[in-house]
Amino acid sequence: MNKKKLLAIIPARKGSQGVKNKNIREILGKKLIEYSLESSLKSECITKIIVSTDSDEIMETSKKYGISVNDKRPPHLCTSEALTVDVLLYEIKKLIDKEEFFEYIVLLQPTCPLRSASDIDQAYNLMTNNLCDSLISVVDVDGQHPLRMKSIRNNYLYNYIETGLEDMRPRQKLPKVYIRNGAIYMAKMEYFLSNQGFGSNKCLAYEMPEERSINIDSEKDFLVAEYYIKKITK
Predict the structure, then answer these.
(1) Separation in Å, CA 141 to CA 57, 146, 158
(2) Nearest Cα to 160, choosing from 175, 179, 145?
(3) Do 125 and 206 share a structural domain?
C-alpha cells in the first residue's frame, strides 16, 4: 500500500454559536479561514489539504487558493453538537474509499490564525523523530495557573486545588503548567483510526508562544488576534 506523508484537514462549518459567521469574518482584510489555508499551503510537510465545510463561501475561498472541496459536509456533521473527530473520520473514509492513504493526520482548526507553516513542519518533524503516537500543541498558562484558581461554595472561597494554604508565590516560582491552544493536533493515521482521537500515552507536546496561540471564540479574541497579527507582520 502506497501511503502519502501528511493529510491536513481544516474543518470550517458556516455556523457558529459564539461569533456569527466566525470562519469567514475578516481580520485585517482577510477571512479567518484564509490564515489557515495560507499556513497549510506554505508547509513543506503537508501532502494533501482537505477543507470540510457546508458553506458555499468557504468552498469558493478554498478554490481561490487551489484547494478543492469535492462536496459539502452532511448536515448531521454541521451542528454545534457534532464532534470534530466524526468530521475527520468522515473525510478520511472518503479518501480511503478512493484508495488514498496517509501515514499521518493533522487537524488545523481555522480559529487559530497565528499558527505558522513552520509550526506545522516543526511539529511533524518532532513526531517523526520521536517514539510517539500523537502530538498536541500547548501554551504555558502563565498567570492563569491552577494553583491560583478558586471555587465558591456557600459564598465561601476555596482553593480549586487544595494545598492547605493561600499560595502567594509569584507566577515565575510556580511549576510549569500547559493548556491545549487548539492550533495543532497530529497523530499517526493508524493510531487515530483505531482510537478515534489524538490523546495517547505517547502524546508529544509542541509548545507555542502566547502570541501564536490565540484560539478565536469571542469578539475579544478577534481584537487580540488583530493585535498580534499586526505585531508579527510589522
Answers:
(1) 35, 9, 20
(2) 145
(3) yes
- Can you tell me the distance from the alpha carbon of 52 to that of 54, in angstroms, rounded to the nearest whole number? 7
**50 - beta bridge partners?**
9
- Domain ranges, residue 161: 142-176
pTM for this model (two decimals): 0.93
Ranges of residues in the chain with a pLDDT under 70 are 1-2, 167-168, 170, 234
82-to-75, 104, 220 alpha-carbon distances in Å: 10, 23, 25
Degrees (nearest 5) of the Cα angle 197, 57, 216? 50
**Same domain assignment for residues 32 and 81:** yes
Amino acid identity of 192?
A: F
Over residues 94-117, the pLDDT tens digits come to: 999 999 999 999 999 999 999 999
Residue type, 158: Y
Number of independent structural domains in the chain:
2
Query: Do residues 42 and 2 make contact, with C-beta atoms less than 8 angstroms apart?
Result: no
Alpha carbon distances (Å) from 164 to 56, 80, 167, 172, 196: 56, 40, 9, 21, 39
pLDDT at 168: 66
